[in-house]
Amino acid sequence: MKKRGLKNLMLKNKKKVVIVSTLFVLGSALILRNFNRDTSSQDYNFEMSERIVKLQKGEINNSVIVSGKIKSGEVSNVSSTIAAKVKSINVKVGDTVKAGDIICVLDDSNIVKEIESKSKSIEEEKKSLQDNYNKLSNQLEILKSAKDENSKKQNKLIEEAENKLNNANAELNSYEVTFNSIKNTYNIMINGLKDKQASRDNAELAKKKYYEEWIKSGGKVNSEEYKKYIEASSVLEQKEEELNEAKALYDYDNISNNYNESLATYNEKVSLRDEAKNQYDEAISNSIASANASDVEIDNIKTNMNDLNSQIQKLNDNEELKELKENLSKTVLKAETSGKITELKVNVGSMAEGIIGTIQSTENLILEVNIPEYDIKKLNTGMKVKISSDALLDKVDGELISISPIASSDDKGGFSADISINNGSGLFIGTNAKAEIIISSKENVILAPIDSIKDIDTNPKVLLKEDNGEMIEVPVIIGEKNDYYVEISGDNIKEGMEIEADINSYDSELDNSYSNGGN
């Protein structure tokens, strides 16, 4: 029988293999015990619960063993969001499909009729709106033309007012030279009379002051106050006479009259200039007001045109029609992901609404396991995993990708976790598998079954088989260990030596693992 076939047979008949192996080892032990009685002076009592294993070098993993079920790492549903009869089905359960493949087609006759009716209604409404839009467009062109004509008229009025203002400014500027000359002569005279005028004004103030003091004292003509008043009056007369003599020297009356006449003419020209400026400003204001009024009318028409255009665009992008067309596209149901059809809930002629089928990837597989509470602190996502299953000949690699932060509430307890499978070829969704989550690993060390160690926690020893067949106790140093194997070393421990192990703990699958290096 080939090796692969033998291994499969052993996996399927594990209990039988264990029984046969046990009987074989027991028989060997009896023969060995009788042989020792005949050939050795030492009477060593070899119990019927023992087996002999050969020490080998290999890799030992500090790990946590868990089990679970295989599931798809990528599951998608084929769903219908509309209620319609199934017209045709293109697949059956078990078929492999690719993303984009048509799964089934729904009856679209009612949706097509609704689309035709809605499209006709929209076209009629669009025509009415377009006619109104065209009328407003014509009105807009008329208003723009009228605005241009009025703008020309207003510009002409502004130009006339501007010319009048320029002429008034020119006349004012021209006369300003004459006026400034007369004004300069007048100011020179005023400056020349300034001191005389100031003396006369001061004398008048003094006279007024002494008069008030005289009246206040009683108004007696023989009083000191009256005397001061008379003296101040005399001084005022003198100052006025001096001022008049100075004015006569400057020809005050002629210069003053000439200045006043020139000032009146200048002010008149300023007034004419200001009036022309007001007319110019008014022409500008009227032009702006007229343009603004036209703009308001134009803007109102543009607003109405924009509203109509928005309504037309809204009809072009009609939500009801879009929804109908979208529903039409939904009558063809396609696969969103690649994988195998694992469920179909409809038949031709049945109503489809909601989930009608399920697609599960057979390439992207995940092992869903439950981690006991006492192991949860040892593990982290990213740890490497060895996966075994009755469906596999050899273990496959994986990785711990998620751990639930919340313990399960069911009787099983623990924490649910997912393990990605690097190569799931040969595994099937829903089947059971074991996972060895590797915490740490040590290579090229001598391994022994854990049940072969005596007093492992105090003074660890193994029963070593010597060349003459006798079993002797040998102390060993314990290194890394897991649930099944332990690393041992010592002065008398070498690869290839045979030691005694407990046959009650014998498991053919574990022995196969041990023969492969303890993995």
TrEMBL record:
InterPro entries: Single_hybrid_motif, UPF0194_transport. Keywords: Coiled coil. This is HlyD family efflux transporter periplasmic adaptor subunit. SUPFAM superfamilies: Single hybrid motif. Residues 112-249, 298-338 form a coiled coil. It comes from Clostridium gallinarum. It is found in: Cell envelope. The keyword Glycoprotein does not apply.
